[in-house]
Amino acid sequence: MMLPRPSPRRWRLLAPLSLVLLLGGCLAIPQTGLFAFRLAITSLGVEDVRIGPYSIQAGLDTSDITSLIASSLGMGSLPVQATLAMGLGLPAGMPAVEMSGFRWTLNVPGAEAISGNYQEEVTLTSGDDANLRLPVAFDLLGTDRNRLAPLVELASQMASQGELPTGSELAITPGDLRGLGMTLPAGLWTPTLRFAVGEDGSLIPQR
User: What is the secondary structure of 114-180 as a DSSP string?
Assistant: First the structure.
């Protein structure tokens, strides 16, 4: 049994509706993805710098590196630990977005690159930056002994200035994005964002 063909009048009614639905679906994905493109690191500071169990802020004398190493041999490592205080924001006028964490990589001059995952949900709201804390650590005992002094000096510099040294680079790759009533999985319309630290501590977007 053959089904009746739609009349020309019905086609004229269905065609515009189909076009609207198609355009609506196609446009929603790029618009939601634009949140990842326009996501910005609005601030980046350094807090709670430590060498092993010792707090730099408490006035640790870092001149005697040998004693620091000896006191930490039993632990098998001597990490320089710090907390990155980072602000994430959206441009004015953009609707709120939920981001399911992100991957990050940090390159600091004189140290090996480190990376990690921020696994908490992040609410991004235009005009109200999200303030996050990322724990980072560089292992002094896992590197060349000739680089110990520069790394200890790096820790002292971060503690005294409260910022990463010039030339540092931070890259973040957003996780799943939820906005405009839909969800975009990580890797789709969510490119890696790279920022470099300038001489005055400013953040410079990198391509």
Answer: EEEEEEEEEEEBTTB-EEEEEEEEEESTTS-GGGHHHHHHHHHHHHHHSSPPTT-EEEEEE--EEET
Judge whether residue 5 has pLDDT over 60: no
* DSSP annotation string for 33-87: HHHHHH-EEEEEEEEEEEETTEETTTT---S-HHHHHHHHGGGT--EEEEEEEEE
Q: Dump pLDDT digits (tens) for 128-140.
A: 899 999 999 988 7
- Paired strand residues for 44: 86
Question: pTM surpassing 0.85?
Answer: no
d(CA 94, CA 125): 8
Residue 19 has what pLDDT? Answer: 33
Answer whether 90's CB lies under 8 Å from 97's CB.
yes
Sign of CA dihedral 99, 162, 195, 52: negative
> Hey, what are 31's tokens?
């618009």
Q: Would you give the distance in Å from CA 18 to the centre of its chain? A: 39
